Amino acid sequence: MKLKNINAEFFIPDNTPLEKALARTTFMGISAHQDDIEFMAYDGILKCFGKSNEWFYAIVVTNGAGSPREGLYADYTDEQMQTIRKSEQKKAAYVGEYGALSLLDYPSSAVKDPNNKDIVEELKTLIATSKPKVIYTHNLADKHDTHIGVVVKVISAIRELPESLQPEKLYGCEVWRNLDWVNDEEKVVFDVSTHPNIAASLNEVFDSQISGGKRYDLAVAGRRLSNATFAASHGVDTATGLLYGMDLTPLIKDVNMDINVYVQGYINRFAADVTTRLKKVL
Ligand SMILES: [Zn+2]
User: Fold this and answer.
1) Which single residue of 121, 213, 218, 251 has CA 20 to 30 Å from 235?
2) Confidence category of residue 75, pLDDT binned at 50, 70, 90
């Protein structure tokens, strides 16, 4: 099995032969960039960590070009930086005991191009080969255009697969926008309280991004704690880390469902909740 782009690669942390490594997949994360998977799909990583019958397969679509370069990395060329980012993603795959990692090496422009079919075709092949039961990707209300490009391509890819090869669940998760605004009854809540040490390791391994001046490691840990504390105003905290997801499964079960109308539904119901609460006290 070969990936389309010349610099694309598979990485299997435990050196299991490729076909076997992909076939054992049960949970999958598909992200735009190196580090997104660890931030948003930690629930899937955690569900597979230390298990011999559950395996997490991470797919990173872009090549990491155009990353900020500061400090230690200030003199790196864009190409060298892409290599560093791939190396960091492999370190995360090793620490997180992923079953497999694919670095697809597409430029951001291809992800954002609605007419680009290569990514959809490649995702179709990888999903059909590994048959995950759950896929985590970006949420539709994210504010990073490359993230939105990825989730739309993931939905397109799954829609084109026969039902027998589709995952049971597709979740859109938090990176460049939290999902705490989604009405509580519609939130998909992932309790990621356990193994905070592994979570910290996974978030901190992306040194080139953190040295670039962004403390994503602290921000992601803070978001999880904040979600857990502000989940309910009554009672004590039972979880110390929560991640929120948007259930995108209806969009793969009904190929004619309009993606924009679907996410606008969440926004409209949030607006209605604000109005209902205000009307009680106005
Ligand atoms: Zn990203």
Assistant:
1) 218
2) confident
**Over the stretch 91-102, which tens digit does the pLDDT of each residue have?**
999 999 999 999
276 CA distance to ligand 1 middle (Å):
35
Q: What is the pLDDT of residues 162-193, one digit of tens each?
A: 999 999 999 999 999 999 999 999 999 999 99
Amino acid at 215: R
Q: Please write the tens of the pLDDT for every residue from 208-224.
A: 888 877 899 999 999 99
147 CA to centre of ligand 1 in angstroms: 6
* Residue 20: both structure tokens together: 């076997």
Closest CA to 114 of 262, 248, 259: 259
Query: Which residues are found with C-beta within 5 Å of the ion, ligand 1?
Result: 32-33, 36
pLDDT digits (tens, 9 = 90+) for 13-26: 999 999 999 999 99
Q: 271 vs 178, 257, 265, 266, 268, CA distance in Å?
A: 16, 22, 10, 9, 5
Task: Determine how many CB atoms are found less than 10 A away from the CB of residue 219.
Answer: 12
Q: Tell me how far the alpha carbon of residue 89 lies from the centroid of ligand 1, in angstroms.
A: 13
- Quick one: pLDDT at residue 78? 87
pTM: 0.96
b/e per residue 93-132 (b: at least 16 CB within 10 A): bebbbbbbbbbbbbebebbbeeebeebbebbbebbbebbb
- How many angstroms separate the alpha carbon of residue 55 from the centre of ligand 1? 23
> From the CA of 33, how far away is ligand 1's center (Å)?
4
